[in-house]
Write the structure tokens for this entry.
Amino acid sequence: MDMKKFLLASGAGFVVMFLLSWIGHEYLIASFYEGHPMAAIESAEPNPIWIIAAYIVIALIMSYMFPKGSEGKGFMGEGLRFGVMVGVLISLPITLIFMGIMDGAPFTSVVAETVWHAIEHGVGGIVIAWFYKGNTASSDE
């Protein structure tokens, strides 16, 4: 593994996904959570350290996994496909679980959260893939 590419991809992926998460959850899909049962259990002041830690972990895992499954068909398409799948994998199951344990959780919040994470991680996947272009699983063989 090319450690320099891995670290650069992880750092850039983190920055992009973290910023998109902030923009999305604070401005674009915030209205889906007004009156949502989740709002009652959220902290008055979120702890950014844990949010940053989560996005660092996501970026590191995505940067590690991407070159292992890449088919060498272009970083844009493969990065997007990979990122969207990770976003759906992260978001859909947990939001469905929240729906099952919270009274009154609307299905629209599941859809909004999943679609937003697909976009957020899709863009992150493209950024991560850019650092690996020409150095994917099929081009290493």
About this structure: The helical segments are 3-28, 37-41, 48-69, 75-101, 107-132, 137-140.
